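Lab notebook, bench 4. The sequencing result for the construct came back, and we need a structural model before the next group meeting so we can plan mutations. Quick request posted to the team channel:

Model the 3D structure of this chain.
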Amino acid sequence: MNRSDAMSLTASLLTAATVLVDDIHSGVVARGFTDLRPTHGFVFSRLSPTGATVTEIAEHLGVTRQAASQIVDELVAKGYVERRPHPVDARARLVVLTTRGVRCTRAAEEAAVEALETWEDILGEPRLLAMRDQLVRLAPGGPLRPTR
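Done. Here's the predicted structure in C-alpha cell form:
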C-alpha cells in the first residue's frame, strides 16, 4: 500500500470511529441522559457487567489513576455508578453501575444499533458484518478508548 492510500485509510477509519461515537452519544442524550460525555460511555463499557476498580478503569481508558478517580467521582455524584467493597481484595473498592447506569448502558446499545442502521443502508448487512469480522481480526478485544 502506498503512503497516500495508507493515510486515506487511516483518516477514514478514525473519522468513522469519531462519527460512531458522536452518533451513539447523541442517541444517549436524545434518550434523556443529558449530563454525560462520550468518555463516560467508555467507562460504562468497562464496568458492564461485573464492575471494575479505579485502577482497572484507568488502564482501560489509558489515563492516570487520578484522572480515572475524578471521572468515577463525577459519575457517583450523577448517580450512574457506586463504589462497593471489593469481594476479593479488602484494600480495593469496586465501581459498579447503578440502576440508572444500567438504563444508560441500554440506551447506548439502542443508540449504537440505530447509528449502524445508516452504515447498513450504505453497505448492506453482509458487507457490514464482513467489515466487523475483519476489524475484529485486526483489533481483537480492544482496548476501547475515547479519542478525545
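The CA atoms of residues 83 and 103 lie 18 Å apart.
Will bring this to the meeting.
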